[in-house]
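Form 12-C: Joint structure prediction
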Amino acid sequence: MNDFLSLLPLLIISSGAIILMLLAAFEKSRLETASYLSMGFFAVAFFVQLLVGCGPTIVIFNNVFNGMLAASNFTQAASLIILACGFFTAMTTHSYFKVNHFSSLEFYAIMMFGACGMLLLTLSQELITSFIALEIMSLAIYVLVGYNRSNVKAAEAVLKYLMLGAFAGAFFTMGTALIYGGVKSTKFVEIGAFCAANSATAPLILGGTFFIFVALLFKAAAFPFHAWVVDVYDGASTPVTGFMATALKTAIFTVFANFLAQNSGLHGSWVTFLFYISVLTMFGGNLIAIGQSNLKRMLAASGIVHSGYLLIALVAISTEHFTGSVIAYYLAAYAAGTLGMFAALAYLGGEGEKRCTFDDFKGLAKVRPYSAAAITVFLLSMAGIPPTAGFMGKFYVITSAIAADHMALAILGIVSSILSMWYYLRLIINMYFHKTEDTFETKESVFATACTFILVFCVFAIGIYPIVI
Amino acid sequence: MEHTVSYLGFIPLLPLIGAVVIGLLHMFTCRKTPLPEIFYGVLACVGPVLSFLLALVVFFQLKGLPAEERFLTHNVFTWFAVGDLHVDMGFLADPLSSLMLLFVTFIGSLIHIYSVGYMAGDENFGKFFSYLNLFLGSMLILVLGSGPVVMFVGWEGVGLCSYLLISFYSKETDNVIAGNKAFIVNRIGDLGFVLGMAFLFWAIGDLGFDYLSLKANVASIPPGVGLAVCLLLFIGACGKSAQIPLYVWLPDAMAGPTPVSALIHAATMVTAGVYMVARFSFLYAHYPVAGSVVAWVGILTALLAAIFGMFQKDIKKILAYSTVSQLGYMFAGVGVAAYSAGIFHVFTHAFFKALLFLGAGSVIYALHHEQDIWKMGGLKDKLPKTYWTMIIGAFALSGCPPFSGFFSKDEILFSALASGHTGIWLIGVLVAGMTAYYTFRMIFLVFHGKPRVQESFDHAHEPPAVMTVPLIILAVGALFAGFLNLPGIFGGNLNVSHWLAPSLSELHPHVSFWVELLAITTSVVAFAIGITIAFKKFGQGATEPEFTGFAKFGYHKFYVDEIYNAVFVQPYKAFGSVISRFLEPNVTDSHVKLSVWLYQKAGAAFKVFQIGYVRVYAIYMVIGLSLMSLFLSQTIN
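Section 2 - Result
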């Protein structure tokens, strides 16, 4: 029964996706109805997940899935974040598609399939399941990125993403094969047991985990596998970018943390490696971000920086001190800020996303003071200014690094946070201290606006009332 | 033994919700058709009134418990936990905070109701009530907080709201300057508070950072640190409660609407400092030296403010200085370790000072925003309700028996005498006489004699009931509140002191009947002398004098503002301009600009790698992979 309950959100979302697909096939409903339906499914799944809450115990699906899946507080938090991201993205797209007419009903179905993959990925405790989940998620995201077929940029983005994604996927399968060769199992637990009993530096294990890390770091947009992010985020339509930036990252980091947490021996030999990757990711991301003039590209690069922070928390992970709560909190804070930002961009961007550069937002505060204030809140949260959620997130990440005796990492994290002010404040300056050049007229966009302001509330609420799982 | 009650959090939450709701409504409607005022008025009063009812519930629940178990707590959530620092967003109601709660919510509610009448017709009606609710909510957080950190949230909240409300009429530059002054002076005090809190945490914070844990571990503080904490916290109290040398903001705070002055002076803000010292009485009780500093600063402030008060001509300024002076008494009380006496004076003062301010407000309202007492006179018959209620307030303020101010002030002076602080007692008696003098100088000039400006006198009329009813209620309080703590000499048994005893660490020295009688007699004599002089000089009508000599010096407040300006503000500005003109361009700028340039160039260099060809991106991956393999093989071998 517990097994079933823990799986219920996933079941709801997958059945929802199938229902939407059928509706689309029979052309029985309108686009708006589909968006309402998907909002509804996400909301229901969210509350079901909230109610299910399996407490401190960990549910391992031994009977049903032979231990390939497991739910814990951490995975539940992650799935809550993913479901919320889905809900808010559905809200944003509702408004976005009123202005940009290239959608069809399948959009929502595919988005929900993507969410299925993500939810499965958070639960997976085994490499092949992870791979399947990863691919379910990735396939859906590929389609979403290139959904606007008439747009060359989108086509370019999907091509790049698909090719590099396939490259990364190959690494994942290769790594799985090597590990299976070494351990004779693909379960995280058994890999951990093997590493505890034998050496974690056996060539097959080492090579295998190395390849798997490459694939995961690619999806998480860590340096030096980050290059695709900027172009893909730019090419995809704004709400899709928001969904990718938040939900996908949540899923990847959840499985990453699960994998490391089960393998303390494995983790020990990789700490130095992850240390350097996280530093490079933070600083590389910052350097890419300051050169951008397009907001979506800037946000993509800042997403790289945030991945760097999450990697800090991964470095600090250990069996005695599972930093899952820190990771989940940071992801929630990041998701609230980023989704809000993309929601605002979605409705302020206008037809064909005509407003998308720093210069386009000059003087926004005079014409749309509330929207400008909301964007400011999101930017401050991403930059880590109290009392927003982003501040608490960074705070927890840095304290977790200190607790794990990585003082250097903590200091570099703070330095990177200072560097990131550059591009966040640049937009704020443009909005507030420049003459208005645009009228910022937008078509009716109730849902995206509502989404923006709900998320402003969330940013403060998560910041003032930090829920530590 | 603690008792957990979950409704505690609602007491501050209700006004805060009100503030948010009213604020949002105002924000979204002020550009179009504003909502009707009565709508805002009702909405604004609901929160405070409900909070008051909850405060009553708290009080009676506490009363039902045995004296040593009177603690109601509610930890809403863990705010943050880092290493040893574990801070809960929690609330604590004990006898001390429940007493504060009662009068803060009661008087706060009355001021809200009065403001509905006073602010009628103002274009920013909604904004005003949003701030007012926020003010009250912050004060309630301050009072109810279960530890110094939560108290600090409220502490900063009231600071912010005082700034917003003092400069409420922001079209005039002077008001904005007054708001800035209040804010900046308070920041100085806040720094003291933060430092004190940090030292306290450093000393014993790892054993729990709420009052109950601190109280339990107070013995393990190193003596030097403890003294420093006491003095630093007192600096914070000086800022909020307007003591020497940080009192200068309070008289200028009169720039705000009159109900705001009443709120600042009676129910919120200035009482925070006294409350804080009493809250930390477990600490101050260990350091009599710190207590003496507090008491002497207090009594000297009382004297200084009383001197200034005697020469002012603005009705609100007189009252403002009287507040500073009375706050001095309160600090003298808590300084000589008579915490309950200090808090009791806070309590009675809240009634009569709110009454006097609201009364002054209705005079000002009736005379169309005239505040100069030399342009008033003879208003006794025009504004009978205001007159009679203000008379009660004036008697209470001057400490005439049996009005409330008499009992509380007398308790402080008597404690000073009993604890051997004769000097403080003597100055206290002198100030009592001066208080009677300047209070009745104001009353006589405003209400008695002949009207000095006929035209405004003719148009004067009693304000509406929504303003006079709160006055009457407060007058009843000002008249009878003193009887709650009737000392033994009058056949009472100090109910309030006994009620507060579990929260405070105070000693009750046993003293002879004759000392008590001496204290009371001198106070009454001082009052009588003061009022007689006032009557002689102003009772039959008087004209505005030309101030010369000492009086002129007093009228100009000893030129303290000018001295501060010359000694602190101007050198500070000069220092700033030296830095900005010489130090920054010549010394630091080059480094800063270099790092900015480097950062930009590095960014530009990185942009080159973002070339856009997918094959190049794949090559990056391969290169990264190769480097990582190299790194791995290096580390493993």
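Section 3 - Comments
Residues 379 and 425 of chain A are 8 Å apart (CA to CA). The beta strands of chain A are 59-60, 70-71.
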